[in-house]
Write a structure and sequence with these properties.
With about 270 residues, the chain is of the alpha+beta class. Helix content is about 50%, strand content about 15%.
Length: about 270
């Protein structure tokens, strides 16, 4: 897998240099791969392409789309997702950020997707430089309090809503909570939030769950281990009943959301 991923990145880097020439300032890996956690066929390869000016023009957009299609065809089971952002646009909050192009789920679109403190903090502190300016030399300056404020807002809105809907057995999220995807998404996602609030840093989903196994009560360990099992694509489920597993996931969400909300921001 490592060789295929390296070959993909070399191919992508070459295509980006050919397309953007001097406009290209850097290419960076973020997401789970930046934390040493990657599962082929499951994890996305998240890239930030830093440009001297905003990506635009129908001709260039079509060429970017074509490059991604070629990569999808050449490198099966490796999903490359990229955001193309100009140097004057990084590090800003969503309100101040100008929309930029992203390639996501096979489409290129203009939005402010992922224009928030966690993205910028990950890029500067943990981003892996594929080419160009080193990620730790980028003048972003997102603070720990910035990422904690974002996390708390995200938990109070997105995750509270997810929990309330999961409590309704026949809602879309209630049914999703019966699936492996739902367990992994909720337990791992919230553990990343908890880790950030406690440690003032960002980590991968798997490492965040391992962190929970070290510091959270034993009553939470079974659902944490189940989420980790799913994350790692391991067999032998820890639960017989998906309905009881859903109940334990909902109980965990209720517990960890309350803990996150009560952690003060200095």
């Amino acid at each position: 897998m490592a060789n295929r991923l390296e070959n993909l990145l070399e191919y992508y880097k070459s295509k980006m240099h050919d397309l953007f020439t001097d406009e290209l300032l850097g290419i960076y890996l973020t997401g789970s791969i930046a934390f040493g956690e990657f599962f082929e066929g499951k994890s996305d390869v998240d890239c930030t392409v830093l440009l001297n000016s905003p990506l635009g023009g129908i001709n260039r957009l079509e060429k970017v789309k074509k490059i991604h299609k070629e990569i999808s065809s050449r490198y099966k089971k490796i999903i490359l997702e990229s955001q193309y952002i100009s140097i004057d646009n990084i590090g800003k909050n969503e309100a101040d950020t100008q929309p930029f192009y992203s390639y996501h789920d096979g489409k290129i679109s203009l939005s402010k997707h992922n224009a928030h403190a966690v993205t910028w903090f990950t890029l500067e502190k943990h981003g892996i430089t594929v080419t160009g300016i080193s990620s730790n030399e980028l003048d972003i300056n997102t603070s720990v309090n910035d990422i904690k404020s974002f996390v708390k807002g995200n938990v109070n809105s997105y995750w509270k809503y997810w929990l309330n809907m999961a409590r309704k057995p026949f809602s879309q999220k209630g049914l999703s909570a019966l699936t492996n995807w739902g367990i992994e998404w909720c337990v791992c996602g919230l553990m990343r939030m908890y880790f950030t609030m406690m440690e003032g840093d960002i980590t991968s989903k798997g490492k965040a769950v391992e962190y929970g196994l070290m510091c959270l009560p034993e009553s939470t360990h079974k659902i944490l281990m189940e989420a980790l099992r799913i994350r790692r694509c391991e067999k032998n489920p820890l639960y017989i009943s998906p309905f009881f597993r859903r109940k334990e996931m909902i109980d965990f969400m209720d517990y960890i959301i309350e803990r996150i909300i009560n952690i003060p921001i200095e």
